[in-house]
Amino acid sequence: MRTAFTTCPLCEATCGLELTVEGDRVTKVRGDRADEFSRGFLCPKGASLGALEADPDRLTAPLARRDGEFREVTWEEAFRFVDERLKDFPDRDSVGLYLGNPVVHSLAGGLHAGPLRQALGSRNVFTASTVDQMPKHVQVGHMFGGAFSIPVPDIDRTDFLLVLGADPFSSNGSLWTVPDAPGRFRELRERGGRFVVVDPRRSRTAQAADQHVVIRPGTDVFLLLALIHELFAQDLVRLRHLAEHVTGHTEVRGLVEAFGPDAVAGRTGVEAATIRDLARRLATAGRAAVYGRIGTTTVEFGTVACWAVDVLNVLTGNLDRPGGAMWPLPAHARRGPGRGKGFTTGRWHSRVRGYPEVLGELPAVTMADEIETPGDGQVRALVTIGGNPALSLPNSARVSRALSSLDFMVSVDPYLNETTRHAHVVLPPPPPSRRNHYDIAFLNNSVRNVAKYSRAAIPLEEGRIDEADIFFRLITIFDGAGPEADLDAIAAAQLEALRGKLGAEFDPEGETREERLLDLKLRTGAHGISLRRLLDHPHGVDLGPLTPRLPEILRTPSGKIELTPPPIVGDLPRVLEALRTPETGMLLVGRRHLRSNNSWMHNVPALVKGKPLCTLLVNPADAAATGLADGGTARVSSRVGEIEAQVEVTDDIAPGVVSLPHGWGHGQAGTRMRVAGEHAGVNVNLLTDDVRLDPLSGTAVLNGTRVEIAPV
Ligand SMILES: Nc1nc2c(c(=O)[nH]1)N[C@H]1C(S)=C(S)[C@@H](COP(=O)(O)OP(=O)(O)OC[C@H]3O[C@@H](n4cnc5c(=O)[nH]c(N)nc54)[C@H](O)[C@@H]3O)O[C@H]1N2
Ligand SMILES: Nc1nc2c(c(=O)[nH]1)N[C@H]1C(S)=C(S)[C@@H](COP(=O)(O)OP(=O)(O)OC[C@H]3O[C@@H](n4cnc5c(=O)[nH]c(N)nc54)[C@H](O)[C@@H]3O)O[C@H]1N2
Ligand code: SF4
Ligand SMILES: [Mo]
């Protein structure tokens, strides 16, 4: 029996874990109290890591499907099969790629997903970003020049937080790495600070808030523009230290002219007096920040809403100052140049619907179009890595049909689930305790500058390969070097090239290719720390609170914060038109539960036991009006589909709104997830619409779907 320390890769909070290991099993998981960042915090998902890894349905060897049957094969056979079959698709665009959420949660994905996309060279790259946070990338790209320069609320030092469309008490934070979010919100209040939550549902976060503002789904953009309007109307604009770094602020007033509190009250359901009061409190609080997430990004005006969030942070003088919205500086990153080429989209367009490319990818809502529509460049083969598009994309009945029509499909995934059942080859990565970990992605969003590296707590079993090797092998297959190419030689060349680019004059150290790459990035990084130092500090290294980064963070051509980027300003007439279009009827939104993680952790008994989590929340008034009863079954229908869901009547949800979580709808033929099958739930994405999207970012509208409800 021994103890090992690692970082939980299951959500963005990056909690430190203390694992008890007996033989080759994790038998106990505790929050690591000595962790410099998470201070011992643990949620039910992290606590179930041992059970997740011991899941008998988890794949341990590659599977290949021939004549309709999956059979275990060796890794050599699996890669040779992939190589042979991909030769049938000489047109690069005919091979599509879908990267899902766990790709950003591993060191392998963090280091190798980029090179993999390059090696594939297809325009048909899709990721979960366009059913999630892409509006934020587009907005910060246009305003600050870098698509990953996302400011985060400095919660530990703020006096006032305005949170829209996020439930960090359940999700543990997103685009905001904030381990023990509930504890940090509690401390904020203990210091005398306040926080306000805007949500159509009384979420766990809303319950703990000083004020819960109930809003009509999809209308946050109007509320946010009205708040900007009020800053001008009440003479509350204070740029402070930002004055010398901003261009375009004088134009903003005119842009929001039509969005006064009285104009938006009816459409948002938020009273004009509440909006005026909120604007005043935001502007007069000592230090404040505005933060928006899923309810502001997976909506029709996601990019404009994200823009309005940071315009508020700028106009109240809270961007880039302690207690406001600040930019982290991760150990593996370098300081920026202070100006640059800026941000563009649309370097190519999707073949069928003509959507612009954003960050090298096309909207996931159009993946099925690209698979099903004949013609040059039609996607006939697909590689999925750590994704479950059959459940996570809108109009998923159509997505499943498209997947089943492919000529060839490869999935890198530990489960035979709703998506991978369509694959011809499934390549299973090892579980979290058997891999080295460093957070390439989430340290970009973290509320303190911290760094932590952990080696695998348990060695890989004989015959298993690391996910980094799976990535590397696919890279050599895509770029033509083939399934037997010498990975170490290729990695050495890659390392040498990067060393030259970074101007490093030392030899990076480490036991693996990935460790040497990381050491190189760390030692040339902003904090100048080494992999060795991280290995000596198993609970992480605290690099201090966030510090101001203007102007070095900017990559705009002007070297300023562009407050009025033309593409975003150009979308405002559409917002105004929507404001003037009356809207009624029942709207469907999503939600998350602490014991659930998108679509893939429902096979862990401890996480699905008890009361079902996949229920349709209905307000008592709507239940009475439609004849629905608590515990009964509702038929929910939308433009694209119809489902039956178990009803939960509660005044936690606003009248005129129903809520159903995503990631459910298990038990389908050909899947191998027995526990999930017994707790199947229904798939909300059979109702969400693949035609609706935020055009600036290509992001799906997953919240605010028009539905009808009736008793069954
Ligand atoms: N209606 C509605 N739909 C939504 C959302 C919503 O709020 N409402 N949310 C959206 C959001 S924010 C997201 S991020 C997407 C998620 O969409 P996806 O990324 O497509 O789906 P996940 O459910 O995260 O699926 C993760 C997959 O990775 C596999 N996996 C787990 N661990 C590993 C690993 O270590 N390596 C590899 N290679 N695979 C692994 C799992 O078995 C599973 O198949 O869903 C989106 N869909
Ligand atoms: N436990 C758990 N944690 C997770 C995940 C999970 O599945 N389970 N998924 C992870 C992923 S991939 C992501 S992207 C993050 C997401 O992190 P969050 O954004 O915090 O996710 P949610 O908990 O879905 O919170 C979204 C909230 O928006 C509300 N909402 C819906 N529509 C609207 C609207 O139009 N306006 C407003 N103002 N509110 C609206 C919902 O009621 C809900 O309370 O969570 C991550 N963490
Ligand atoms: S909050 Fe997230 S990172 Fe922390 S233990 Fe839970 S799943 Fe893991
Ligand atoms: Mo997400």
UniProtKB/TrEMBL annotation:
One Gene Ontology cellular component annotation held by this UniProt entry: membrane
Alphabetized SUPFAM superfamilies for the sequence: ADC-like (SSF50692), Formate dehydrogenase/DMSO reductase, domains 1-3 (SSF53706)
Alphabetized GO MF terms: 4 iron, 4 sulfur cluster binding; metal ion binding; molybdopterin cofactor binding; oxidoreductase activity
Domain of life: Bacteria
Database matches in InterPro entries: Asp_de-COase-like_dom_sf, MoPterin_dinucl-bd_dom, Mopterin_OxRdtase, Mopterin_OxRdtase_4Fe-4S_dom, Prok_molybdopt-oxidoreductase
Assigned keywords, A-Z: 4Fe-4S, Iron, Iron-sulfur, Metal-binding, Oxidoreductase
PANTHER family per record: NADPH-FE(3+) OXIDOREDUCTASE SUBUNIT ALPHA, RESPIRATORY NITRATE REDUCTASE
The name this protein goes by in its record: Anaerobic selenocysteine-containing dehydrogenase
Organism of origin: Lentzea fradiae
Lineage: Bacteria, Bacillati, Actinomycetota, Actinomycetes, Pseudonocardiales
